[in-house]
Amino acid sequence: MGNPPELYHKILNIPKNTSPQEIRAAYKNLVKKWHPDKHPPSSKPEAEARFKAISEAYEALLDQQENRAVFGLCNDGRAGERGTGGAFCGGGGGGLGAGVGTRMERTRSDDFCTRSAPGTPAREFKKVYSSGNSGGRRAFAEFSSSIMRKAPPLERKLECTLEELCRGCKKEVKFTRDVVTKNGSIVKKEVSQTVTVKPGWKKGKQVVFEGMGDERPGCLPADAIFTVSEKKHPTFKRVGNDLVLKAEVPLVSALTGWSFSFRLLSGKKVSLAFQDEVICPGYEKVIGGEGMPIPEHKGARGDLRVKFEIVFPKELTEEQRAGLAEILKGSC
What we know:
This is J domain-containing protein. Keywords: Chaperone. This protein is of the alpha+beta class. It has helices spanning 5-12, 20-34, 44-75, 95-106, 110-114, 121-129, 132-146, 162-167, 251-256, 318-328; strands spanning 154-160, 169-180, 186-197, 206-209, 224-230, 236-239, 242-250, 258-263, 269-274, 284-287, 304-311. The protein has a 4-stranded mixed sheet with strand order 6-7-11-10. Strand 6 (236-239) and strand 7 (242-250) form a beta hairpin. The chain is elongated and about 110 Å long.
């Protein structure tokens, strides 16, 4: 078939010097995985190309194994039967081809030496999906080159709100990809896919649609990659698995008592009251288990951290200053 054995081994994902039994086992596993009938229309072209290449590689390695066996049987114990005319495994002259043919017809190894390889799904597949030998070879060439070459990925952003990343959701994404037509030209095609956003996903998370990116002649279809980005939230800021809420407290409330309410991303209402304590600058209140879900640990969540910022008056009258000084005397 004109290709180096190393390429066939690479296609079947097997090492050199693999036994015939191991070659057959690898082949069976791969054809089950890449049979076109098991793939949706979106990945069927890739499956057909891979199936053809796997079939070509299997048959080539099988033929090599049989050729070795043929030469071994013909030479075993018959070295003295070579004719002076250059015949191989034959009695008379006439060259290599004639000698082999004559000998194969006469010996007990006839059936083995002259039989063709047993019928395989690969051969049956070629009848359906290939138009002659050139089609199979063309598919093999395309796939063998694509082992080390794949079209660059199509990359897009997947914008999510903090609520969507907290609760999870489904988002439909639409994008345009290049598609190779039957005559080899490239056209634009708009496609849509559904992304299931799981609770707790973070920005930078990637969703990959294999083979749904741009197509290029002679290459495997590229992947379409969507990277999660987080929209800025007006109330909360995400820090790892925690949520941070900044609350501004007037100085008088920080000293004399304060309470406020807010809603979590889930919609749950939370109330905090500080009646018997002074809220100091930089004070942080931690509410456990009210942060973002942690995907790696089912049911686990981060914390909610409420950071208080004390709002000081911009100016005071002389009377106010004197009053504060009198009130706060001896309190610090």
